[in-house]
Specification:
The chain has 426 residues and is an alpha+beta fold. It has a single domain, classed as Cytochrome p450 (Orthogonal Bundle). The protein is 44% helix and 12% strand.
Length: 426
């Protein structure tokens, strides 16, 4: 590998979770896109985690798309898709998750589970999502103030996901706990809410089988229950689905349950308050949307482009390859940065402007290529109905305190966002 930037390089830090405490480092992305679009970064020991071998950061839109759609050269399976390497003893297990598969194995599993994400299935849950968003907003409307992150954004994805999956109401807090354990491990406070006792801190990798045994046991029991008591939900669809003429194996099912519990929760839970914050900070755009609600679909896409919840995913080079002049060696980690691609001036005019009329708006917040987000339809619905309720029912919203972000280099989350607004009655 050719070292072009390091931790001490003035181009800036993309790795330390603490660097994300104020949001994504858009100034660093802009410098990298212009000066070193594919750049080498060290992976030092931070927050008790050991140092890693380093990684290539890909920041331009075209390159992010290229890496994401070329699994033969940039594999999701070899080293899996997290920036940190899985422990050697967890590698085989982690590779069985759909997110970490390459074609053709990935295609087969994706085709099977896609049955639970068809437009018809999404339409089936639309009314439920609309009602849930209404109920959550109703609960705080007359108070004239709330913590938007905790009272609304933490709740909607959780109840939506539980309804879609068919997780009984009494067990929903478990989904929240597991997602916090996996995503919040870089954040002292969230990590410690994850177990209710000890934070999930190193040396236990939160994505290892050992750290998630309780989740896998639960998934197993739920599958058995749904086999005996079929219902109109995603878990029932999955336990009856077949890959190449056979049902999903226990391990495939349990890992997909894990993937959904994390992918379907923290992402949307981060996008919702970030979008509302963008409207607080851009009152002209809020007025525009209130005056013309037909702009809502465009506004949702701009929220996703302007404040994408997922920072990166990783691939591993299967061969020596050159990308934008960077000489990548076989086995190197290649990490695509979605927020950087979404502000690429080659693709988006005036990219730092929040503009709900932007068209076209082909952001990469849901990824690109074979692994493009399976839950995008559900995520869009939740953002749409929350924004619609907020604009109609919580007028004159403003910040009432400091916004506190999750300390993570993977998810751009908001954990506290005190707001006040005009109290309203329905
Ligand atoms: C705003 C919300 C969301 C964002 C920004 C988001 C983002 C992403 C991204 C970037 C990927 C691609 C990963 C890669 O290429 O390695 C992905 C994959 C995935 N997402 Fe989402 N996601 C969101 C919501 C959801 C929801 C609500 C669900 C489920 C209900 C979901 C389920 C999945 C699954 C299953 C995959 C793996 C697809 C595969 O490997 O083929 N996501 N998501």
């Amino acid at each position: 590998m050719t070292t072009t930037t390091t931790q001490t390089d003035p181009l800036g830090d993309l790795f330390d979770p603490r660097a994300y405490a104020q949001g994504a480092p858009y100034d660093v992305y802009a410098r990298l896109r212009a000066e070193a679009p594919v750049s080498w970064h060290e992976e030092p020991a931070v927050l008790g985690w050991p140092a890693g071998p380093g990684f290539w950061a890909v920041t331009r839109y075209d390159d992010v798309q290229h890496v994401s759609r070329t699994p033969g050269t940039y594999s999701a399976w070899l080293g899996c898709t997290q920036l940190r390497d899985p422990a050697p003893e967890d590698l085989d297990f982690t590779r069985q998750m759909m997110l970490n598969m390459d074609p053709p194995v990935h295609n087969r599993l994706r085709k099977t589970v896609s049955k639970a994400f068809t437009p018809a299935r999404i339409r089936h849950f639309t009314e439920m999502i609309r009602t849930r968003a209404k109920v959550l907003v109703d609960a705080v409307c007359e108070r004239g103030e709330c913590d938007f992150a905790q009272d609304i954004a933490d709740e909607l994805p959780l109840v939506t996901l539980a309804e879609i999956m068919g997780v009984p109401e009494s067990d929903r807090h478990l989904l929240f706990m597991w997602a916090n354990r996996v995503i919040g491990y870089q954040d002292e406070e969230l990590g410690s809410t994850s177990t209710g006792a000890q934070p999930a801190r190193p040396p236990v990798n939160p994505r290892s089988r050992a750290a998630l045994q309780d989740m896998f046991d639960y998934a197993h029991q739920l599958a058995e229950f749904k086999r005996a008591n079929p219902a109109d939900d995603l878990i029932t669809t999955l336990v009856h689905a077949e890959v190449d003429g056979r049902p999903l194996s226990d391990e495939e099912f349990e890992l997909f349950f894990f993937l959904l519990s994390v992918a379907g929760n923290d992402t949307t839970r981060s996008a919702i308050p970030a979008g509302v914050l963008a409207f607080i900070q851009h009152p002209d755009q809020r007025r525009r949307l209130v005056e013309d609600p037909s702009r809502l679909p465009g506004a949702v896409e701009e929220v996703l482009r302007y404040c994408p919840p997922v920072v990166h995913f990783r691939r591993t080079a299967t061969e020596d390859v050159e990308l934008r002049g960077a000489r990548i060696n076989r086995g190197d980690k290649v990490v695509v940065f979605y927020p950087a691609a979404n502000r690429d001036p080659e693709v988006f005019a005036d990219p730092d402007r929040f503009d709900i009329t932007r068209t076209p708006n082909n952001h990469v917040s849901f990824g690109f290529g074979p692994h493009i987000c399976l839950g995008a339809g559900f995520a869009r619905l939740q953002i749409t109905h929350t924004l619609s309720e907020v604009l109609n029912r919580m007028p004159e919203m403003e910040l009432a305190g400091a916004v506190e972000r999750i300390q993570s280099n993977f998810i751009l989350g908001i954990k506290r966002m005190p707001v006040r607004f005009q109290p309203t009655r329905r």
